[in-house]
Amino acid sequence: MIGSLKLTISSLKLTIDTLRQTINSQNATIASLQKSMDRLNCAYDKVVKERDDLNGRLNRSKK
Questions:
Q1: d(CA 55, CA 47)
Q2: pTM of the entire structure?
Q3: pLDDT value at residue 31
Q4: CA quadruple 36, 40, 41, 43: dihedral positive or negative?
Q5: 48 Cβ partners below 8 Å, 6+ apart?
Q6: Alpha-carbon distance 61 to 53, whole Å?
Q7: Residues with Cβ < 8 Å from 63, sequence gap 6 or more?
Q8: Scanning 45, 50, 54, 62, which has the fewest C-beta atoms within 10 Å of its C-beta?
Q9: How many CA within 13 A on the CB side of residue 52?
Q10: For position 62, what pLDDT does the model report?
């Protein structure tokens, strides 16, 4: 009986360690994806500003 409980505890500890590693890995992935999103948002903002500037120039040249 005690031996069985020790095996169960050992198995649960291994499961907990595996879950911790998985969580750490997912957190690293999330951080990497967040950095990518930030870069893409910055690039998008620059393109929108450039488009707006070009539209402004076009409108001024039509007058």
A1: 12
A2: 0.72
A3: 98
A4: positive
A5: none
A6: 12
A7: none
A8: 62
A9: 6
A10: 86
Tokens of 11: 């198995």
Task: Please give the structure tokens belonging to residue 38.
Answer: 């930030």
Structure-block tokens of residue 39:
């870069």
What is the structure's pLDDT at 12? Answer: 98
Q: Output the DSSP codes for 17-63.
A: HHHHHHHHHHHHHHHHHHHHHHHHHHHHHHHHHHHHHHHHHHHHHH-
Here the tokens at position 63 are 């007058």
In this predicted model, what pLDDT tens digit does every residue of 5-63 receive, in sequence order? 999 999 999 999 999 999 999 999 999 999 999 999 999 999 999 999 999 999 999 87
CA distance 48 to 45: 5
Three-class DSSP category at 1: coil
